[in-house]
Amino acid sequence: MRPTGAPPWRWPSSPSPGRNPTPVKRGMKVFVTRTLPGKALDRLRERGLEVEVHRGLFLPKAELLKRVEGAVGLIPTVEDRIDAEVMDRAKGLKVIACYSVGVDHVDLEAARERGIRVTHTPGVLTEATADLTLALLLAVARRVVEGAAYARDGLWRAWHPELLLGLDLQGLTLGLVGMGRIGQAVAKRALAFGMRVVYHARTPKPLPYPFLSLEELLKEADVVSLHTPLTPETHRLLNRERLFAMKRGAILINTARGALVDTEALVEALRGHLFGAGLDVTDPEPLPQDHPLYRLPNAVITPHIGSAGRTTRERMAEVAVENLLAVLEGREPPNPVV
Ligand code: DGY
Q1: 33, 75 in Cβ contact below 8 A?
Q2: Is the pLDDT at 59 greater than 50, yes or no?
Q3: Disordered: where is this region (predicted)?
Q4: How far apart are CA 306 and CA 223, in angstroms?
Q5: Which atom of ligand 1 is nearest to the CA of 120?
Q6: Residue 7 has pLDDT above 80, yes or no
Q7: Fewer Cβ within 10 Å of end Cβ, the chain: N or C?
Q8: Alpha carbons 91 and 109: distance in angstroms, whole number
Q9: Domain boundaries, the chain
């Protein structure tokens, strides 16, 4: 479980110079922290690299520390916290090729200081994540999960004009916080549902949607959807004050990172102020089974599956492998972060 509280990482102040590239040699070790769908890892094996894959569901820190020893390349998932201790254990580590677009689980400054390159997988998961954002929005607005439980639990005895009334998306204002690739893909889908789109980002973009300050957006939007990376600046962006500054009866959707939101304050806001929330990410993650969010009928929670389309996940593996090989071969990786 990822701890709550202040993030462990620091943002890099300047690009990494990179450790000296070493030609890929037979037997060099790459450690992959989970099994990955598809055949991308075969490419590493074909190059003579020794690919060690952790096959369990969890990877405790102590085991990560042991298994990373001797690795020149590491492919971690969002659940692996890659801090200075891990980097120091892997003395010859040259590249951390994240199997994710988000890199908040990596201490980027520590990587930069050690000359370790960090890469990620932007682009390939945009559409899948936007799809799940709309799935959560529809589920919350039209009370799909409540309705399914109602039917399955034998409570459906008659049609009634007032049964499980939800919100019509047509005509609602969607406020996107963060307007990168995923935010823009969500906007396109929202337009098809007849929604009006407004957004907030660090700087306005040449887009056909009104740019608002975060405070204006929270006041105007019927639905707020988060699509911004987790950084020291965005940690708990939606704190108590901002959650309660949202319109009464609004919906919050989060498919970005759990720590963008103050979870305790969200629980309170869902007990009367907000219509509901759709969360693919939480803080902490995963949520303990007895967490109050699970007892709120207006909270729909999915287990961080935004990018979990088979093709998307296979492509993420291909991108991570290409980034990793590029660094080991002394080429500039296609998707560098550090
Ligand atoms: C990411 O890529 O950052 C997602 O959270 C997991 O795919």
Answers
A1: yes
A2: yes
A3: 1-25
A4: 18
A5: 2
A6: no
A7: N
A8: 17
A9: 29-124+311-329, 144-155+163-297
Give the pLDDT mean for 304-324.
98
Residue positions annotated with a catalytic role: 257, 285, 304
What whole-number distance in Å separates Cα of residue 173 and Cα of residue 195? 6
Does the CB atom of residue 102 touch ligand 1 within 6 A? yes
User: Does ligand 1 lie within 6 Å of residue 78's CB atom?
Assistant: yes
Residue nearest to atom 4 of ligand 1 (CA): 100
CATH H-level superfamily of 29-124+311-329: NAD(P)-binding Rossmann-like Domain (3.40.50.720)
Mean pLDDT of the chain: 94
Beta-strand (E) ranges in 14-144? 29-32, 50-53, 71-75, 95-97, 117-119
Q: Is the CB of 101 under 6 A from ligand 1?
A: yes
Q: Whose CA is nearest to atom 2 of ligand 1?
A: 100
How many angstroms does the Cα of residue 171 sit away from the middle of ligand 1? 30
209: three-class secondary structure by DSSP = coil
Residues 275-296: tens digit of each pLDDT: 999 999 999 999 999 999 999 9
Task: Determine what percent of the chain is predicted with pLDDT higher than 90.
Answer: 92
144-155+163-297 is classed CATH 3.40.50.720? yes
